[in-house]
Amino acid sequence: MRNVLDHLPERQRPWVKTKLQRAYNCDDVAVAKRQLQGLAR
Fold first, then answer.
1. What DSSP string runs through the chain?
2. Furthest-apart CA pair in the chain: how many Å?
3. Beta-carbon neighbour count of residue 39 at 10 Å?
4. Are 14 and 20 spatial neighbours (Cβ–Cβ below 8 Å)?
5. Which are the contacts of 24, defined by CB distance < 8 A and separation ≥ 6?
6. What are the b/e assignments for 19-32, b being 16+ CB within 10 Å?
7. Sequence-separated (6 or more) residues with CB below 8 Å from residue 13
8. What is the distance between the alpha carbons of residues 26 and 32, in angstroms, rounded to a whole number?
9. Which one of 13, 14, 29, 31 has the lowest number of neighbouring Cβ atoms within 10 Å?
């Protein structure tokens, strides 16, 4: 996760980190995948 955040501007890091953590901590793989795909857009 850190390497992803390192490539972002400082102002975007907090909200992207929150979204990444939610996806990584999700118990449902399909939901996590949708969350990450939404973040990538």
1. -HHHHHTS-GGGHHHHHHHHHHHHT-S-HHHHHHHHHHHH-
2. 30
3. 14
4. no
5. 1, 32
6. ebeebeeeeeeeee
7. 5
8. 6
9. 29
Contact, 16 vs 5, CB < 8 A?
yes
**Tokens at residue 27, please?**
């118990």
Question: pLDDT (tens digit, 9 = 90+) per residue, 1-41?
Answer: 889 999 999 999 999 999 999 999 999 999 999 999 999 98
What's residue 1's pLDDT? 83
